[in-house]
Amino acid sequence: MTENSNIKIVNEVKEMQALSNSLKKEGSLISFVPTMGALHEGHLSLMSTAKEKGDFLVVSIFVNPTQFGPNEDFNKYTRDLDGDIKKISDIGVDVVFFPEVDEIYPEGFETYIEVQQLQKPLCGEFRPGHFQGVATVVLKLFNIVKPDIAIFGEKDYQQLLIIKKMVRDLHLEIEIIGMPIIREGDGLALSSRNAYLSDEQRLQALALSNSLNNIKRMFNDGENNIGNLVEAGTSILNESSIKDIDYLEIRDGNTLEDQEEAKKGDIVAIAAKVGNARLIDNTKL
Ligand code: PAF
Description:
Blueprint: E1 2-4, E2 7-10, H1 13-25, E3 30-35, H2 41-53, E4 56-61, H3 81-87, E5 95-97, H4 101-104, H5 123-126, H6 130-145, E6 149-153, H7 157-169, E7 175-179, H8 199-220, H9 226-239, E8 245-251, E9 267-274, E10 277-284
Parallel strand pairs: 2-5, 3-4, 3-6, 4-5, 6-7
Antiparallel strand pairs: 1-2, 8-9, 9-10
Helix pairs in contact: 6-7, 8-9
The structure holds pantoate.
């Protein structure tokens, strides 16, 4: 364990578990924000809420290899512990859990978690194995940090549903809280991957939120034909020269099932590549 400002950095599983056990014995409520680092205002807002809700705030920073595909950005993903610690120094984070990869996946590791239906559509189709990696690492982190409350962003909407389902299905005694997407003033959803965008690509990327807003406006004006809504959203992406669209879909906001017609509470979700950045965004109808 090392100290950096007032924040303790814990690298080892056993040490984190021992600390959490003693906090629990004292009756402290542990709140937890799991991250992969490259922190931005979106993460900070999760942490501020977590601070209010618990007595002791743990943040994990771990770029989890099992949720990246072979041609994805695992190696390129920004790693800057000192920068991240500076960004969170005013929030009141008590511990940053910052393990090495082999601490989390020791040699011979072979146990994985799958939330079988929810992991299939949307990002599941384009990132095989991604949600298995997410669910596995999140369950591991829960077993290490032993939180009472864990907070996730709604930007990763499918991830949030999967984690809630896993918690329910496996009887974990953890309250999962989802927090709204934080956006730049012009609508771009905050993401660690925005750092990959050039100025020109950043402007192009605005088409994602514009497309979602347009679909929502049409729905509010009475359009519920999914084909029409998706076509209108897609043409906004195309006008901005975004051609590499993984999906733009409208699905049930709880089950992610396909719909005959759009209805209130459905989720509109987009994933598209802008330059080298694969961006996702969503809104609820
Ligand atoms: O949302 C993320 O940053 C990651 O998927 C998570 C939940 C920290 C698991 O690695």
